[in-house]
Design a protein that fits this description.
Blueprint lengths: L3 H6 L1 H15 L11 H5 L20 E7 L4 E8 L4 E8 L12 E7 L8 H5 L2 H5 L5 E5 L21 H17 L1 E10 L1 H12 L6 E5 L10 E2 L2 E4 H10 L17 H7 L12 E7 L16 H22 L3 E8 L5 H18 L4
Parallel strand pairs: 4-5, 4-6, 6-7, 7-10, 10-11
Antiparallel strand pairs: 1-2, 2-3, 3-5, 8-9
């Protein structure tokens, strides 16, 4: 247990320790990661990827750049009205895309975690190999270092950044118009991305058939303390990450007490009733070192403690889902910390469940 005094005395130090451990395990990819010249040089001449430059959403957001990495993989840069800036997305094309006759393709959103980027999943898992086994269009969008997959509240102004609008309206329309993305959609993510997957599905159940969360933040208003600090989770989140990184922490969902309704409106555990009819997959470790944990990469113990805290979130979410007879498959696999080898393994387990739900297998 990390004491209140330790957290109060050094939230910046705690974050630096977390970042060092996260970097060693692949939790975080450097902020603003860009394509290297080597990736650009690997572009293929095969005509499987259509030119998306100029494809636009209804609000005028449009693709302003495209890089073809190989016959399956393309990166796009979108000038987003909702964000007020550009953002990237990595796309895996369906098998046989160039010669396919089907009118539309099932769409799979795959979201990165906190302090990560749109390249994380292809760099730290074998999602590209998995995708070749299904007739699915995979999109891995940028979600901001700590964007939390929401349109930020900003004292009620509802201003930027509007990640939810970017992902579910602008990017969706671009994919529908440029790549024939269909209406059968699944969504999954890790950690912060797990929150995003379940929050998006709960807030917009009409858009999705299935959702999965791997070590996700699924109860962000949990009133009990976490093993990471003696503060309630919202306070720990704001004091340990948002504020030290220069964010106005209250701009996310507002004050946890004064704007409790806004926190609840985005909190997966408060949205479980909306998930009836969807297929869900939820997994998390218990924070103890497990068989896939790299050695000597978590000297502060924060990755272990964070996973322990998130297990409580996940158990609360699953209990709520089961009370509403939601179709949820769980894997609370015991020993395992907040690291990539477990998320890759869980993607393998969840993938066929999600793909069957959207008709991609």
């Amino acid at each position: 247990m990390v004491s209140r005094d330790e957290v109060a005395a050094g939230p910046r130090l705690e974050r630096r320790q977390f970042l060092r451990a996260a970097s060693a395990t692949g939790v975080a990819v450097a902020a603003g990661a860009q394509l290297t010249s080597g990736l650009a040089a690997a572009a293929t001449d095969e005509p499987s990827a259509p030119d998306l430059v100029g494809v636009a959403a209804d609000d005028g957001s449009r693709v302003i750049a495209q890089h073809v990495l190989d016959a399956q993989t393309i990166d796009i840069t979108v000038d987003s009205a909702a964000l007020g800036q550009t953002a990237n997305a990595r796309i895996l094309l369906p098998r046989g895309f160039s010669s396919a006759t089907r009118e539309t393709w099932p769409l799979f959103y795959l979201l990165h975690g906190g302090l990560g980027s749109y390249v994380d999943w292809t760099e730290s898992s074998d999602v590209a190999t998995l995708a070749r086994s299904a007739d699915v269009l995979v999109v891995m969008p940028d979600g901001g270092q700590l964007g939390f997959y929401t349109d930020w509240w900003n004292d009620g102004a509802g201003n930027k950044p509007a990640w939810e609008t970017f992902h579910l309206t602008e990017l969706r329309e671009i994919l529908e118009r440029g790549l024939r993305a269909g209406e059968e959609r699944a969504i999954a993510g890790l950690s912060m991305g797990g929150f995003g997957a379940m929050s998006y599905a709960g807030r917009h159940p009409e858009l999705f058939r299935a959702a999965a969360a791997f070590s996700g933040n699924l109860d962000v208003t949990q009133p009990t303390v976490t093993p990471v600090s003696d503060d309630p989770y919202p306070t720990w989140l704001m004091e340990t990450f948002l504020t030290p990184m220069g964010y106005d922490a209250l701009a996310l969902f507002g004050d946890p007490t004064a704007q409790a309704d806004i926190w609840a409106a985005h909190n997966p555990v408060d949205l479980v009733e909306n998930l009836r009819g969807l297929t869900l997959y939820v997994s998390c470790g218990n924070g103890e070192p497990g068989p896939l944990d790299p050695s000597d990469t978590d000297p502060s113990g924060l990755l272990a403690q964070l996973e322990t805290a998130l297990l409580a979130h996940n158990e609360s979410f699953v209990a709520g889902a089961q009370s509403f007879d939601v179709d949820v498959t769980t894997d609370f696999y015991g020993p395992g910390t907040h690291t990539w080898p477990y998320w890759d393994r869980q993607l393998h387990a969840a993938f066929p469940i999600l793909m069957r739900a959207i008709g991609a297998l």
